[in-house]
Amino acid sequence: MSTITKTTGNPALPRIVIVGGGAGGLELATRLGQNLGKKQRAEITLIDCSHTHIWKPLLHEVAAGTLDSHDDELSYLAHARAHHFRFVLGRLSGLDRQNQRVEIAAMVNERGEEIVPARSQAYDILVIAIGSICNDFGIAGVAEHCQFLDTTEQAELFQQHLLEAYLRAHAQGGVRNQGELDIAIVGGGATGIELSAQLHQATLLLSAYGLDNVKPSDIKLHLIEASPTLLPELPARMSEATVAQLKAIGVNLYLGERVVEVNEAGVKTQSGLFIPAATRVWAAGIKAPDCLRGIGGLESNRINQLLVRRSLQTTLDEDIYAIGDCAACPWPEKGPQASVPPRAQSAHQMASLAYENILRRLNRQEQKDYVYTDYGSLVSLGKYSTVGNLMGNLMGSVMIEGAIARLVYLSLYKMHQMALFGPFRVALLVISNFFRSRLRPKIKLH
Q: How many structural domains comprise the chain?
């Protein structure tokens, strides 16, 4: 392993740098900090462009206002101190592989004033875990006229936009113009479906809290999907159950409709259909951030994911790993060209293997291959239902719905919290959330 003379810290310790504090990156930093950092066997550094972490599958609840992000967010600085690693605030801007340095862009405030200048961070082992963002596929008007839910800030901005529109309509005595509160969601995957259900719940709650000049029926929710089915990558039974639930709560479904243009009035599809909507949300497809395209001369695919071997090391540099949505990891069990799907369970499994392989690399042992295990998929429809399928060697694929599926869905988040906090603190969080949920409004009203 190559090394660089350091100007700070202990030059004898290997420097492990993780870029990206999402589910996989933060879990990895926590485990490495608890093992290597605490015992002063390595210097662990986590770099992220945000001050706080929230589990990304919760962002649709933040957007609808049914979850206050401040209740569930985690401070990187505080978590780093408690788990023996260092946190650096910054956004990845480049990679100098020859000198083994990560380049970090300057940080500016909302007024454009520079807070922290551009700088770099030396590494011996680098893990890139910066996740994914929505892919607009270059469709006209999407970037200008759609809202996205890639970050907490975007989700909170959407919630503010929704609340302001509702308050405006309430103050004027109700909806005056057709479609002024309608919402079009493009993308029939888990994000689009879960957001539809949460927004329906939000409209009922806002009326219940006194904004009754606007009736829930005044807001039409439109879900648009290019495929002829919802959740096309999942079993047909899940799709059918989800369609039935969405229709039951009044969501308008447009299946087999490929969006070709978005403007400030609504969404146009290839068939000529125009769906008017004052608010447009894009949740169709993902890609890795554009900064990864060819970064440091590493190989990447058409959606900017870094190509990695089954050990999760990048194809051209053994000192650099990539995990989570930003990694194109081979999935030979599904075919020679198949890649592991970008899911939360993939990121969690990759973080576990990256942790093990980093320890093995430090001990000069052979790397292990990543084998993806599909435990099934779950889609939450808020308080109305949860549908999913569980995978197992003995039982194959078993579809679950209702309360059992909801409990399994909630357990996924608890598994993430367990990886970060351990059982004792998770138990305290469960008790705290129980009482907090009974003291606060069921929807964010500010």
A: 3
